[in-house]
Amino acid sequence: MRIVALAGGIGGARFLRGLKDVVGPDDEITVIGNTGDDIHLFGLKVCPDLDTVMYTLGGGIHEEQGWGRAGETFAVKEELVAYGVGPSWFGLGDKDFATHIVRTQMLGAGYPLSAVTEALCDRWQPGVRLLPMSDDRVETHVRITEEGRTRAVHFQEYWVKLHAAVDAEAIIPVGADTAKPAPGVLEAIAAADVILFPPSNPVVSIGTVLAVPGIREAVVAAAAPVVGLSPIVGGAPVRGMADKVLAAVGVEASAAAVARHYGAELLDGWLVDEVDADAVESVAAAGIACRAVPLLMTDPAATAAMARTALELAEQVRR
Ligand code: GDP
Ligand code: CA
Fold first, then answer.
1. In this model, does residue 289 exceed pLDDT 90?
2. DSSP bridge pairs for 145
């Protein structure tokens, strides 16, 4: 079976680990990763979501934190601070720096991001084919107003530095409108037997992937059933501040509202948590088959069960 999953960082990566646990040796998983979170720091190209997927599936992730490397040290960052060179709000450890140096060096030599990602994955062996959504530069910006002054900040500045404490007024995936899907992306979607939307951020992760012209259209046109899992449980994101960016696009932070936001055009099936069982009827009324099941990725077994249920729902809605 050929499975395609769109993914952001932590929610996507953890779900994919569960998915890997339930598929057979002949199944192939292609991950289309969000690159709208990418940022240039200290002259280096940093791809937080691709790296979170790569480190998580490759066994190098800092488990509790959910991003960055396990057993990390911060000597380089401390030296940069000593020089007064920032930003200091973005956590880059010494081991992580090496990844960004290799990536930047390869990009400088002319390799596209998709080839660079493949090369990095040669080391990590994530067990999936990890494709960036695009080789073209896309950077999500967030419009905010502070003390009467409106400006756009990079998504990382909004999320990591400002902790999304200011309201997001608009989410702008800069560059997305002219970006092309990376090689293999449209082909993987068209050839998929199942397409999954993990419990990733619907706006700045999956929404950004879908904003690359051609990708949404390919998912809509795909023969494969499309099943998503809600990142919103009991009216709040399980982790992070997804409610802030949902509000910016006029979507309530509820499992049902996120399903309606994707819509029946994209989704054939949707999983909500058991605490959101009352959402099942309204999601079904929107033309999306819906089940309420445990959706907390508390341990590998719980996460694997979520993946298994998503694949079962895909079979039930297959036309
Ligand atoms: P990011 O790029 O690191 O923000 O990661 P993603 O976009 O892939 O995922 C973030 C989303 O994952 C957040 O909106 C969380 O609510 C969601 N999430 C994290 N852990 C869980 C979980 O255990 N269950 C569910 N249903 N969602 C989760
Ligand atoms: Ca992200």
1. yes
2. 150
Task: Give domain limits for the chain.
Answer: 2-135+178-316, 139-177
State the CATH class of domain 2-135+178-316. Answer: alpha beta
Task: Give nearest CA residue, ligand 1 atom 5.
Answer: 9
Does ligand 1 have an atom closer than 6 angstroms to the CB of 36? no
Residues lining ion ligand 2 (Cβ < 5 A) are 8-9, 37, 49
Ligand 1 in contact with 269 (CB < 6 A)?
Answer: no
Pocket test for ligand 1, best of 34, 205, 299 (most atoms within 8 A of CB): 205
* 3-state SS assignment for residue 251: coil
Is the CB of residue 35 below 6 angstroms from any atom belonging to ligand 1? no
196-251 pLDDT, tens digit per residue, is 999 999 999 999 999 999 999 999 999 999 999 999 999 999 999 999 999 999 99
The answer to whether the beta carbons of residues 87 and 113 sit under 8 Å apart is no
Burial label for 71, CB within 10 Å (0-12, 13-18, 19+), is exposed
What's the full length of the chain, in residues?
Answer: 319
Q: Does residue 9 line the site of ligand 1, with CB under 6 A?
A: yes
Nearest to 34 by CA among 74, 57, 6, 64: 6
- Tokens (6 digits) for 118: 């493949």
Task: Tell me, using a 6 A CB cutoff, whether residue 295 lines ligand 1.
Answer: yes
> What distance in Å separates the CA atoms of residue 42 and residue 153, rounded to the nearest whole number?
18
Q: Residue 232 has what DSSP assignment?
A: E
